[in-house]
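note to self: dont lose this again. the chain is below, predicted strucutre after it. 394 aa total, dont forget to put it in the shared folder this time
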Amino acid sequence: MLELADELLERVRRGVPFVTATVTGVAGSAPRQPGSSLVVDADGAVLGNVSGGCVDAAVHEACQEMLAGDHRPQALRFGYSDADGIGVGLTCGGTIELLLRHHDPAAAPELERALSDAAGGKAGTSTDGKAVALATVVRGPGTHLGRTIVVRPGRPVAGSLGDELLDRVAGDRATDLLHAGQTGTVELGVADSLCREPLTLLVESSTPAPRMLVFGAIDHAAALARLGVFLGYRVTVCDARATFATAERFPDAEVVVDWPHRYLQAQADAGLLDSRTVACVLTHDPKFDLPLLTAALRLPLAYVGAMGSRRTHEERLARLRDAGLTEHELDPLHSPIGLDLGARSPQETALSIAAEIVAHRHGGSGVPLSTGVPIHHSVPSTSAPSTGALTLSS
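---
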């Protein structure tokens, strides 16, 4: 639901009720991950999707029925040739489980604040946003189903799952996923004094947009900045040459005029970089590249790539070794930057760089799917880590 925070916030502020159908579990070739939602509001508008099209019509109908009738949370399951699934199957195979919830803005004052936090954290917005998570019971006793708490770092939970101890433990587990920027499920085994069945929570995390730092104010950087924003990054273009580093040339990015290595180190010292940050060095000029890469490869960044020919790359590696970098520190460097797409234009080159970043982030191979590689990968950055059941006692 938080992926649609901007649109839902507008509806909450207008007092428009809506129903969310949120993916709570997937298996096989299901096309959307937990946390993805389809929303139908009281005005009839539809937002998002949960299947890429194959069961969205049936989910839309179920949402309309909930708006018009029974507002109690409802769990749905769609499977391929599955007698236990409801009428419409997933044509691509696999299974998805959904939770339908009715939201009345007048009855949920905390919802507006949570959506406001999540909306501010999206790429392309004027604010950095705040970390926030929704932890919702998606499997368990009917009296708990659909109950939600709002979790923020360093603050008490808002809302309740029905028990103070349960709220505290669920809040702790949700905070762990929030700190990791992950969305996924958490299993809680609960003693009879609290609940007669184990509970499954869906934790939807929203954190400020990850950063993409593009060094070198060239045409390729302008194209990459546009793609970076499209992929959800907050993009900064940095170059020491004020003539080239202008807001007019890079309307999609924050533009900084500074020596790249000095800017990077200042951002790191201020705690403004994290393990999701990607750095793309497009200058291929030793006076910029060497001090910049020396600093970047010693920071815990998600990705560091550098543009240049293979000869430039070998010369650059030799200079970096002379500067004291070890082979272990050099291993993460992606150079020449990008995947082999046969790219020629700045736009195509930017696409090859973005493709490599996505493949690296999610463990993709970069080879054609027609070769038989898995279509859907396990995604460490968006799925919950494996956890055992937790038993609570009073």
